[in-house]
Amino acid sequence: MPHPVTKKWLLLFVTVVLLVPGMVLAQGFQTGTLAAVAKDQSGGALPGVTVTVTSEERGTQRTGVTDNAGTARFPVLPIGFYRVEGALSGFQTATRKGNKVDSDRTTEVPMTMSLAAASETITVTGQQPVVDRTNVSANTQISTKEYERAPIGRSYQTLMTLAPGVIDQPGNGSGGNPQVHGAQNTGNVYLFDGLDATDTTTGTFGSNLNFESIQEVSVQTSGMSAEYGRASGAVLNVITKSGTNKFEGSLKSIQTNDGWNAPNTTSNQVTGASLARTRVRHNNYRYDATLGGPLWKDHLWFFGAYEKVDTVTAAATTTVSNENYVQNQALRLQNYRVTAQLTPTQTIWAKYDLDPFTGIIRDYWGASPELFSLTAQDQGGNRRAAQYSGIFGQNITVEALYGQSKSTITVAPYIISPLNNGAPHLSQADGKYYNGATFDGFVDRPRDQAVVAGSYFATLGGNSHNFKAGVDWQSLKSSNFFRYPNSQLFIDSSFDYQTRTFEPLYRLDFIDAPSTSKGTITSIYARDKFDIGRRLFLEAGLRYETETSKNDIGDKVLDTSAIAPRFQASYDLLGNGNTLLIGTAGRYYQSVILNFADQFANVPQQGSYDLFIWDPAKKDYVFDSSVRAGGSSNQPNLDLNATYLDEVTFGAQQQLGPTVGVGVRGIYRKWNDLIDDVASFDANNSFFQRYINDSSAKRNYKGLEFTFEKRFSHNWNLLANYTYSQTRGNHFGTIATQLSDFPNQNCVTTVDRSIGTNGTIPCSQVNGSSSIDGRPTWDIPHLFNVLGAYAFNLGPVSLTAGGLGVYSSGNSFSKVRSLNVLNNAGAGSGKTSTYFYDGQGSDRGPNWWRIDSSLEATYRIFGIEVGAKGEVLNIFNKETPFVVSNTAYCAQTAGTVSAGCTTAVNTYGKYTSRGAFMTPRNFRLTALLRF
Length: 931
Fold this sequence. Notes:
Elements: H1 6-19, E1 31-39, E2 50-55, E3 61-65, E4 71-78, E5 80-87, E6 93-101, E7 106-112, E8 121-125, E9 138-143, H2 144-147, H3 156-160, E10 166-167, E11 179-180, E12 189-192, E13 195-196, E14 214-222, E15 235-240, E16 248-257, E17 283-296, E18 300-312, E19 316-317, E20 324-325, E21 328-343, E22 346-354, E23 357-362, E24 375-392, E25 396-413, E26 425-427, E27 433-434, E28 440-460, E29 463-483, E30 488-496, E31 501-510, E32 515-532, E33 536-550, E34 556-572, E35 579-589, H4 595-598, E36 609-615, E37 620-627, E38 644-656, E39 660-672, E40 675-681, E41 687-693, E42 699-713, E43 716-729, E44 746-748, E45 760-762, H5 763-766, E46 782-794, E47 797-808, E48 812-813, E49 816-822, E50 828-836, E51 843-844, E52 848-861, E53 864-873, H6 899-907, E54 922-930
Parallel strand pairs: 1-7, 6-8, 12-15, 26-30
Antiparallel strand pairs: 1-4, 2-3, 2-5, 5-6, 9-14, 10-11, 12-13, 14-15, 16-17, 16-54, 17-18, 18-21, 19-20, 21-22, 21-23, 22-24, 23-24, 24-25, 25-28, 26-27, 28-29, 29-32, 30-31, 31-36, 32-33, 33-34, 34-35, 35-38, 36-37, 38-39, 39-42, 40-41, 42-43, 43-46, 44-45, 44-49, 46-47, 47-52, 48-51, 49-50, ...
């Protein structure tokens, strides 16, 4: 429910919106602003200058006139390069070309115009400014020129990790979903051309994207304006290519072969056994093709990208039948887009992309005994969106976007056994599942979104103002349908996989039905960017967030809303726009993912069944009883508030020449209203969970970031940043941790009798806020990233050398012991709690570093560029330990020490699996053609 002050603030918020003159409620994603500033030789403003802005890629033009401050603004320009021309009677015509407009930023183009007795034109090269006084959020932008010739993983997630404060490495649970500035990996928002493609259920990335279709990525990690919400981590906006007035395209063949790569030289730190792998000497290819160009020059353009990836993975072996199986995975990444310039001030585009991924084989049972026990999985989805941008008069802009993002997973038996139509058999003899897969069903997670935004430019009290307001509406679903193959499960005394015979005990016939939870998000925002004098620039905004969700039978389980204020400020220290002192303050709410609503599901998955018992006399199964899984015992808390964080940043930015910028920024964040479950037992010893805003939950982040950015010019580019940070607290989960669990129960262990009294301790002490205080696995004090490339010619051949380097602190881990939870009657409950000997994150793995390199050679003939690119990843073949394998510990030193205790002490902090170490040196080779 809303906070007590919400209605008052909401009334004020609506009043502010309605007072904005000419406002159309509507948020821009792929456009920026260009501001031409005309001055005479003495530095005085030149009003009345006619300024023409021309797209160097698409030929479109817009014209404006400078105001009394000598400024002509051109908002909602599609990102790209522009030529700016200023003309005024009696002055030389000034032209600046190569001015880069980035998404959600303002490019200021200074134009000094001299008196001229005769008509003449002065032309100079424009700039790609790194410092923007009108947007001081922590925003890392990387365009194609900065990354396409570098040795980098072919995904937008990899590009995201180049931003400061972004943690994504094995051992911290990232899995391609990084933690940013202390937030969980569910705290990010992933936008494809402004469309939210975040997974509705998990809050993680929900889609893959054709890498060749990416034009630019924007990673905002702190200080975001009121236009952005639902994120406690980063907002990643991936902007795709849209075609130009030139027919341009590419063909690539990307080849890998595990036989080229270095072998694993590590060993199990406990047993000493070698962790060497069997290398599969098989060529795996990725084929990429892109094509873009004009359908109607200066008016209509297209772009398409297609990627075909067929991958053969290393063979695996079943545990009983000893059958080998190989995954033949097929990925088809497609992206199609059309852009139209309806008038000089009206633009529209539409796009469609999809990412089907088939041929995945999962061992969901774990140590599957035979091929029939494996699960086949296909996944993927599609996204479709359209956006309109328009300018009305000199002062009003309108943008609108509508789209749908959908991700789906289907699972089925890898091979259907003819026995019982592939139903699984659980053998009591060895505890393994034979004959059938774990799942047969699907996951479906669609998101519909509509966004409208409008801006109004005005001069009030001699100061320029840019008012903007918008609405973002989303409808979300989380559907799942999991059943056993043939909706049956057999429990046998034994199962012979060779003869396909078994000794029957029971048969469970399941009653299956899909489960779907739903949610709605509505956000309204308003903000004003304005100057005070010549040097101080401010932005003030409010964002109203409301979110509701219902479980699978339509019961409301969440209804929350709140107001989030945002502020930005920059001070032009020297008055030349190059040296800025910056600061931001804001409140950011995190979306409550639909996995929360799934906790209240009333339609059980693989839970309701009829039980049949084998009758040896009848040689058949005989009905015994029915088991009907009831709905969730969890009770919704409609007074629950969404988790939010308060953030303050401060720093300085310095532009060094037209393409270089450096900066320093301090960041402080504090989380509030953290949602958690309190697990316990009722009077009947039935387990239940209730969700609250736990007042004892806490988390904070402190960081200091240094950045250097050199955009591509004069043959080279460089992006480098260093982050020093710390994350502390006792709550590092999304909606459920062990904090405050089992407040009235005891926890026991028979392994370490030093815990509590002879191994028995109140669970309230195990799960108390001070007992689990510490740092999460993604607390990385030191993180340094660098990405760069240098291009040069060697005769007729163009060479580009690229490099990527990372230096990082190791992951933190903890001395822990799993304790059994007793119910109110003092009996075992099947539940556990984790005991932290020294708090969370008490120990840390070794620091690590990695350097990747690449060299691309191309030769141009008849306007076509042909060549090859070689990449060496982990060039120095570092195999540093990454992911600690054993964290169980024991502190008992007196009395009879158990064997489990001795084993825990001897194996604690050891690395025992191949995946626990960095991947050895590997190679990638690309043959390419560009035109």
